[in-house]
Amino acid sequence: NAGVTQTPKFQVLKTGQSMTLQCAQDMNHEYMSWYRQDPGMGLRLIHYSVGAGITDQGEVPNGYNVSRSTTEDFPLRLLSAAPSQTSVYFCASSRAMASGGNEQFFGPGTRLTVL
Amino acid sequence: QQQVKQSPQSLIVQKGGISIINCAYENTAFDYFPWYQQFPGKGPALLIAIRPDVSEKKEGRFTISFNKSAKQFSLHIMDSQPGDSATYFCAARGWAGGSYIPTFGRGTSLIVHP
Fold it and tell me: Taking the CA atoms of chain A, what radius of gyration do you get in angstroms?
């Protein structure tokens, strides 16, 4: 199992550009989520999904879109990048928490810089 | 609004010493309290977790102490080693918007000197 994979590992954007951060998992996990990690701020939830076709907002959703067309993939889209979106982004997955899934498996992260 | 408060922000310990990281929460409906360990350039990984019906859980050198009445829980690392140098996040899981949502503390950067 590859676990949770994220691409790209690094990305530099100019203000106003758009891009998609890719996330895939091969563990057949129902729950997937996106976090951003900023110094001194911990991990903040951007969006999450409890299954294919279902997404919801987390703590800091503004400026980001997600979709979940398959169980395996959960891409994060930046519509118009801003310097405030400079961060490290982590994708995570777990079994359905309502059925006992507790441990979240994190990907290696994408380091994004917006100039 | 910070639902899980973690302290200290950074911690320096000598090899062989005890590292203690504390977290406090507000929501009494939280039902699962994990600790994640993150090495530089990597994603966080589950280290140890506890449910609120027990007061302590130990796995090797790592122990969670849980005080339900005080709404506090802590991670103790016994005989700290340089390889334990990492960032540690506490978290608490609660039901919101139709799903269980974990809320993370802001992290503690631990450095263990040889």
Answer: 13
Condensed to tens digits (0 to 9), the pLDDT of residues A85-106 reads 999 999 999 987 665 567 899 9
Closest listed residue to residue A93, CA positions, set A26, A21, A17, A41 = A26
Q: What percent of chain B has pLDDT over 90?
A: 81
Spatial separation of the C-alpha atoms in residues A79 and A9, rounded to whole Å = 19
Determine whether the interchain pair A98/B97 forms a contact, defined as Cβ–Cβ distance below 8 Å: no
Of residues B32 and B15, which shows the higher confidence score?
B15
In contact, B4 and B24? CB cutoff 8 Å? yes
Averaged pLDDT score across all residues of chain B: 93
B73 to chain A, closest Cα gap in Å: 17
- pLDDT, chain A, mean: 93
Q: Is A39 near chain B, with CB under 8 Å?
A: no
Other Cβ atoms closer than 10 A to A90: 26
Please tell me the distance in Å from A80's CA to the nearest CA on chain B.
26
Q: Nearest CA to B11 among B80, B100, B69, B65?
A: B80
CA angle A66, A67, A69 (to 5 degrees): 160
Give start and end residues of each alpha helix (H) in B38-80.
none
Q: Which residues contact A99 (CB under 8 A, 6 or more apart)?
A: none
